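Q: Okay, next protein. This is ATP adenylyltransferase from Microcella putealis. I've checked the sequence twice, so it should be correct. Can you predict the 3D structure?
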Amino acid sequence: MRDDAPDSGFGTERAADFAGVPDAFERLWTPHRMVYIDDEDRSGERSGCPFCRAPGLDDATGLVVARGVHAYVLLNLYPYNSGHLLVCPYRHVATYDEASDEEVAEMASLTQTAMRVLRDTSRCDGFNIGMNQGAVAGAGIAGHLHQHIVPRWAQDANFFPIVARTKAVPRLLGEVRDELAAAWPAAL
């Protein structure tokens, strides 16, 4: 949106409307993510960490796709794309350098398997894989290490998220979880 354009009413605000030097960036507010921020206390520990809670639930309720010894895979409750997975250690550690060698190795192995399963089940064309370390780096849940695996398809980006505040996710989470869990190879 240009500085002289009217507010679209879709949660964006013009930088020129605020004190300071305008930076020409739009701001897209995502208040639904405050549930993660509000639950974190000042020490960085989480009283209701969803990544600590999920493994204690049955797999369907916790959206758990696969379980390892040191880490597990679950669907993202707020996916960027259908099949958006997270790989988490069971242990509540905040950053990659705090994870044990065993946790790191298993997270890597689970990530590789997740890529194969997603490619086989969804026919995706590629992946975004990454970790945001700390709240300042964009981690929605900064207190518990997690790696994102986002399947991507040619032409999967569109105007819905920007213009209509809508993300097109064509399949239900439970349906995707069931399909991925069924396709996950048995433990060796």
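A: Here is a summary of the prediction. Residues 1-5, 40-46 have pLDDT under 50 and may be disordered. The chain has two domains: 1-38, 44-183.
Q: Noted. On to the next one.
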